[in-house]
Amino acid sequence: MTSKALNVPAVALGTWAWGDSGEAGDGYFGSRLSASGLREVVEKAQSNGFTLWDTALAYGMGRSESVLAQSLSGYDRSEYQLSTKFTPQLAGDGDDPVADMLEQSLNRMGTDYVDLYWIHNPSDVARWTPSLIPLLESGKIKHVGVSNHNMEEIALADRILGEAGFRVEAVQNHYSLLYRGSERAGILEYCREHEVRFFSYMVLEQGALTGRYSPANPLPEGSTRATAYNAILPRLQALTDRMAAIGEDRGASAADVATAWAMAKGTTPIVGVTKANHVDGLLRARGLELADKEIAELEALADTADVDTRGWWEKEM
Ligand SMILES: NC(=O)c1ccc[n+]([C@@H]2O[C@H](COP(=O)([O-])OP(=O)(O)OC[C@H]3O[C@@H](n4cnc5c(N)ncnc54)[C@H](OP(=O)(O)O)[C@@H]3O)[C@@H](O)[C@H]2O)c1
Fold this sequence. Notes:
This protein has helices at 35-47, 63-71, 97-109, 125-128, 132-138, 151-162, 181-184, 187-193, 224-229, 233-248, 254-264, 276-286, 292-305, and strands at residues 12-14, 52-54, 81-86, 114-119, 141-147, 170-174, 197-201, 268-272. It has a single domain (12-305), classed as NADP-dependent oxidoreductase domain (TIM Barrel), CATH 3.20.20.100. Helix 10 (233-248) runs antiparallel to helix 13. The longest helix has 16 residues, at 233-248. It is of the alpha/beta class. Strands 1-2-3-4-5-6-7-8 form an 8-stranded parallel β-barrel, surrounded by 4 helices. The structure holds NADP nicotinamide-adenine-dinucleotide phosphate (NAP). NADP nicotinamide-adenine-dinucleotide phosphate binds at residues 14-17, 29, 31, 54, 120, 147-148, 172, 201-207, 210, 212, 253, 255, 270-275, 278, 281.
């Protein structure tokens, strides 16, 4: 049985872009990140109680996990929590590809357990979910969750784990003002009713919802996120302007408002922080309460933008 209830901070930190750093980066984010800059991010986050770090082998083929571990060096393992993933498309051909991928992640991160382990997508729920059970039993993973799963797939994974006395403790899906498929599909409600933590990823739509990027200042040329978002930036202007105005009254930015919105909806945002000042934003977002009227107004503006930001790896919920 799972030993302790899953207990995590109000916001988790995402490190997909960290896999993109330096010479081995794959150009997804087009960010220029340095070891010293990321160390600053870690120090500021850790000292403010943001101690849950989300990564995956898939982020830069191991680079995000390695860079994260280097950036966390010196901290006691009990001071932070690691969240990483089994990605079915990267499975090896050994007898137990889930255990093998986990072992590689543990080696890269210099640890012998992961606090939260995910099946990254539902490519074959019946095949991969059972492999989590021995890893939970051995304590190599403390808690499990499923990502990019729809309602039926979450229920199937939960049944499989339930037969061994475990359960799906967390769900991690794309959820932002612009992309509310999990809400419409009843997944948020299911999570609330079953005390399953819902982690929302890409609440900032990879930078497009921060107000920092605009047609005049687009996402980095040549990056995959530029291809996904630059063409729709003009349609987001009214929304990001309104988020900025709502934030201004409280000394906060448009990005802080986007994060606060995801918290107001009862979810735990995973924010992809790349600079120390992004952590200041999380602190502001944590204390920012949006009125129901503001939430409704922002959602209406998001609907009016009428954009589809579903990632290439996602299915409709
Ligand atoms: N399970 C899955 O399939 C899945 C899929 C996607 C993401 N995720 C997880 O969710 C995390 C978040 O998603 P993401 O990193 O793709 O995108 P995101 O959080 O929507 O956006 C991250 C980008 O927003 C900018 N940013 C972050 N904080 C900011 C702030 N306070 N103010 C202004 N700009 C800010 C940064 O851009 P600049 O660097 O340009 O400043 C950063 O690269 C990932 O890192 C990953 O851990 C999971």
